[in-house]
Amino acid sequence: MNDLKTQNKHTARHQYLVAIDGALALTAVLLIVQMWLLTASLETHLGGDKDSAVPGAIFSFLLFSGNFGLYCFVSKLEKKARKKGL
Amino acid sequence: MKQLHKDDNEPLYKEEFSISSAHEALVNRRQFTKFLTLTSLGMFTGNLWILGKGYFEKKPSFPRQVVGKEEDVPLGAVKLFRYPEESDPCILVHTQDDAFVAYSQKCTHLSCPIIYSNETKQLECPCHEGSFSLETGAVIKGPPPRALPKIVLERQNGVLVAVGIEASHE
Q1: DSSP letter assigned to residue A50
Q2: Does B18 touch chain A (CB under 8 A)?
Q3: Which of A60, B19, B130, B160 could be bridged to B144 by S-S, CB 3.0 to 4.6 A?
Q4: Is A44 left (phi over 0), alpha (psi -120 to 50) or beta?
Q5: B43 touching chain A per CB within 8 A
Q6: Along the 86 residues of chain A, how does pLDDT read in single tens digits?
Q7: ipTM of the prediction
Q8: Domains in chain B: boundaries
Q9: B159-166 and B130-133: which strand pairing?
């Protein structure tokens, strides 16, 4: 009985970790896109094009919002897991 | 032994080591996500800085400068001049359709001086074989990342006058 309980605990813990890892990977991807966006914005700015800075900033904000959302998701999962004693 | 416990009967070591080893993986991942999110905030701030810089930056004013007489540059010929500073080489071309176009002579790749090719009717960079359109200054081929800055010209009684620089968006 105890073994089964421990196994369930391990499975639940593994599931939490997989979800958190997924969110972490997505955060990294969004960050890479944002890095590219910043480079492209700077490049066009130095090239004399001032108009592309606005869409650049908007998309950068959206990407940051996405990252913040994912961070909240990870925090929530972590709290939940710790509360359950996993 | 009493000293090793806090008032709420929690062992004192918990204050220093508040995370159990079982929760370490979770906490590490959360902290790493936090780090990435803060980096993302930094990137967003960078984009905002670029936006602010473009918004608040004063528009540069360019002097009026006589480039030369139209008759001095025959059809298909080229004249080199410097505008707006002595360190800014420019190229003036009298095109086949009797128009005058002028561009910065610095290639947008690595600042090699560009030349006009009468055969291809294009502006070419001999260093890395980049080509620009004579009409717009846009990149046709090669490594240059952007179009050539265009010199705005005015024709006044047969005299060509440079009045500004236009950064092409093509």
Answers
A1: -
A2: no
A3: B130
A4: alpha
A5: yes
A6: 677 777 777 788 788 889 989 999 999 999 999 999 999 999 888 877 778 899 999 999 999 999 999 999 999 988 888 887 76
A7: 0.88
A8: 2-56, 65-166
A9: unpaired
d(CA B51, CA A33): 18
Mutate to test the interface with B, among A14, A50, A68, A86 (most CBs of B within 10 A): A50
Cα distance from A4 to chain B (closest Cα, Å)? 18
Chain A closest-CA separation from residue B24 CA (Å) = 10
Tell me the per-residue pLDDT of B79-94, one tens digit each, with 9 for 90 and over: 999 999 999 999 999 9
Indicate which of B27, B30, B33 best probes the interface with A, i.e. most A CBs within 10 Å of its own CB: B33
**Cβ within 8 Å, pair A23-B33:** yes
- C-beta of residue B71 within 8 angstroms of C-beta of residue B50: no
CB distance from A26 to chain B under 8 Å? no
